[in-house]
């Protein structure tokens, strides 16, 4: 046990493990994630309804949605996809959570919305082509390594028609100042979030100062299995995003405050980016 814990608390190399799919494909954890998605008073898995409404309205004003072919990557239970479809967009939702997609399909059927939901991993599976707009919302971009981000941008570039747009949001550099290193050990860590039965949960938070990168690393010890989860989060400034977009054949059309839709100023809050395919 000593050697196991010693290895756990050591600082791993940046992006040395990628476990994001585990949050959305584990039978028990995916159910908890869906609960968080659907809780209108919770910001842990998706923004609140009023914030989602505001962003879709911003898109309608700045890009236009009626008749547009739109793919929402990491669509989850369809919270943005439904609203964009109501504005007349022809929506494809893409996600690797069976549970979230099942909910999204039920909702689309009940609301008579013609949304196509596809199961897949946007880092490796075939993606729709000929799109006018691609969205990647709730800082999904920030959990990816530089290599993954570059590959994904090329994939999104190939999805879009000339002049098509890519909208996403990222954690900002000032937010990194709020990250505190620490270690926690609790029985049924996070009020039983990680497993239905009894378990011990360990969490350690690392800061990578020179890269503005944070890691929440979890070890979940159950009677019959032990698993680790790595939650990376990269923090950006607009010029860094502009450079990554430029290398992939995009130009930045607008940087904006994701919560208000207004101009983003340097503050401790995420910002949205609207990019255009050159």
From TrEMBL:
Boundaries of every Methyltransferase domain copy: 70-164
Entry-linked InterPro entries: Methyltransf_25, SAM-dependent_MTases_sf
A Gene Ontology BP annotation from the UniProt entry: methylation
One MF term in the entry's GO annotations: methyltransferase activity
Keyword line: Methyltransferase, S-adenosyl-L-methionine, Transferase
Source domain of life: Bacteria
Pfam families for the chain: Methyltransf_25 (PF13649)
Protein name: Class I SAM-dependent methyltransferase
Organism this protein belongs to: Rhizomicrobium electricum
């Amino acid at each position: 046990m000593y050697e196991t814990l010693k290895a756990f608390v050591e600082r791993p190399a940046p992006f040395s493990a990628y476990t994001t799919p585990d949050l959305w494909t584990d039978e028990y954890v995916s159910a908890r994630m869906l609960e968080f998605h659907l809780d209108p008073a919770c910001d842990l898995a998706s923004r609140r309804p009023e914030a989602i409404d505001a962003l879709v309205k911003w898109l309608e004003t700045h890009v236009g949605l009626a008749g547009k072919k739109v793919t929402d990557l990491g669509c989850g239970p369809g919270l943005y996809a439904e609203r964009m479809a109501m504005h007349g967009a022809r929506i494809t939702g893409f996600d690797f959570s069976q549970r979230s997609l099942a909910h999204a399909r039920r909702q689309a059927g009940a609301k008579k919305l013609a949304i196509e939901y596809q199961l897949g991993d946007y880092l490796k599976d075939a993606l729709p082509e000929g799109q006018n707009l691609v969205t990647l919302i709730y800082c999904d971009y920030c959990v990816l390594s530089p290599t993954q981000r570059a590959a994904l941008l090329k994939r999104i570039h190939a999805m879009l028609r000339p002049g098509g747009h890519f909208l996403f949001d990222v954690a900002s550099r000032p937010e990194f100042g709020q990250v505190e290193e620490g270690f926690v050990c609790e029985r049924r860590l996070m009020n039983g979030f990680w497993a239905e039965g009894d378990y011990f949960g360990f969490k350690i938070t690392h800061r990578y100062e020179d890269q503005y990168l944070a890691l929440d690393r979890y070890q979940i010890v159950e009677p019959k299995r032990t698993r680790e989860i790595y939650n990376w989060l990269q923090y950006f400034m607009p010029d860094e995003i502009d450079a990554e977009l430029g290398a992939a054949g995009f130009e930045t059309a607008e940087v904006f405050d994701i919560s208000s839709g207004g101009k983003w100023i340097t503050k401790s809050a995420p910002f949205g980016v609207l990019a255009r395919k050159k």
